[in-house]
Amino acid sequence: MLRILPALLLVLLTGCQVDPYTHAPARGATDWYQAGFEDATAGAQKKNDETLAANFNDKKVDRQAYLRGYASGQEKICQPDLLYAWGLAGKIFPTGCDDLDTAPQLRQQWQKGMDEGVSASRLN
Questions:
Q1: Looking at CB atoms within 10 Å, which of 13, 17, 57, 124 has the fewest?
Q2: C-alpha dihedral over 93, 98, 104, 110, to 10 degrees?
Q3: What pLDDT is attached to residue 11?
Q4: What is the pTM of this model?
C-alpha cells in the first residue's frame, strides 16, 4: 500500500496541471488610436483594415480611430528637426511622412542629416 500511494499521488497531481495557453485571459478591446499612433511614430505606412485585423486578431477595426492616431503620430514624427536627426543617425526616412504636403521639405532635411552623418563617419 505504501508503494502505491506515491504513484497515485503523482497521477492525481498530474491531472491538476494548468495549460497556460488555454486559460489565457481574454484580451481587451484593441486601442485603434494607439495602434495608428505607434505605426506612424515607427515610420510605418498606414495599414489596411485586413492587415490590422490579422495583426491584432480583432475583426472589428475602428478605421477612424486608427487614422486619428496615425495623424497624431505623423504630427509628432514628421518634424524637420527630428528627421534631420534621423538622417544623422542613419535611419531611413519614415514612409508615413511621404503622405504629407511638406514631404519634399521633410525629405530634404532628412537627406541633409544623412549626408552630414555619412561625412562625419568618414572623418572618424
A1: 124
A2: -10
A3: 56
A4: 0.71
